Amino acid sequence: MSQSTTTTLGYFRWAFIVTALGLILGGVLGWQSTGTVGGTATIFFICVVLAVLEISLSFDNAIVNANKLKDMTPEWQHRFLTWGILIAVFGMRIVFPLLIVVIAAQIGPIEAIVLAASQPEEYSRIMHDAHLPIAAFGGTFLMMVGLSYFFNQEKDVHWIPFLETPMARFAGIKGIEIAVVLLLILLFSRILGGEDADTFVYSAIYGLVTFLIVEVIGGLLDAQQQTMSAAAKGGLGAFIYLEVLDASFSFDGVIGAFALTHNLFIIAIGLGIGAMYVRSMTIMLVEKGTLTHYRYLEHGAFYAILILSVIMYVQTMFHIPEVITGLGGATLIGISLWSSIRYNRRHVEEDKQAGTLDRPVEVKPSEA
């Protein structure tokens, strides 16, 4: 793919538009619900904080998406960045919280919407009660995503060699990442104990099975496409994989949003704004070839995924502030970016020195 000439701000044009519309809608919602300038300003501020929270928690998601998208055909790239983002914004930020309440409270979808609008406190309580199985499911799925990246025999670029070199070497042992995840599931279930342990194990196993099913379906679908056309790569299977991955990333942000507000509609506005920035970052990373230029950026994202998965496990026992989760991932990605820049500068200097040393010496003919 040829690199785009679009400016950095150009990639975020639609994100800025959605931000303006979302904040206006948040202000209107705040005035209707409170009737005061102070209350409206508070809801406006919460929308901004939720957007920042979503961006900080999902920046590693954008990098992983870009890594998958760069191997997809332009047609499927376009489908993911249009239909996929609609599914991500409306599906995970609106439908998913409603679905949790529908299942947990055993009520209909319309009743869940009425509950969210008329009894936000009760709605929030149901969401928090469902946190344990959600964290176990999402944490397991993300852990498999992260471990599958590092347990890879073909991986030859290592950011932290003493960790990544042995993992790449042991990747020849079939199912080693599954064994690691199962051991962690057993460990955390022993710590939890009682009914919570049973809920944790079942939910975590569902997360593991979901990852394996998505991998199998994705492989079969993409294999059929490659049979039809040798140039067809990363089609429907990759699309499904990215959608499930985005859903797993969204679990933490959706649940964490209820710590700031119990209003489902404010949550949808704030997280929806953040999701648009994630989409813009994904497009920029793909078209500008950023992952190629910064060799360790991808590593930082997958380390952030692994840490997020462990945090989701730990959150089944006690609460960890979302700001810590977001800052932890952003810090790792920042360090990996800094390491990549240092690597690039070092090799530029080495190339310059090699060019100077290897330059042939010009010998002038002697004058007669």
TrEMBL record:
State if Membrane is listed as a keyword.
yes
The entry's keywords: Membrane, Transmembrane, Transmembrane helix
Q: Which domain of life is it from?
A: Bacteria
| Pfam families in UniProt | DUF475
Checking InterPro entries in the record gives: DUF475
Q: Where are the transmembrane segments?
A: 12-31, 37-59, 80-110, 130-151, 171-193, 199-218, 230-249, 255-279, 300-318, 324-343
Q: Does the keyword section mention tRNA-binding?
A: no
Q: Which PANTHER family match?
A: MEMBRANE BOUND PREDICTED REDOX MODULATOR (PTHR30238), SLL1022 PROTEIN (PTHR30238:SF4)
* Name by which UniProt lists this protein: DUF475 domain-containing protein
Species of the source = Neorhizobium huautlense
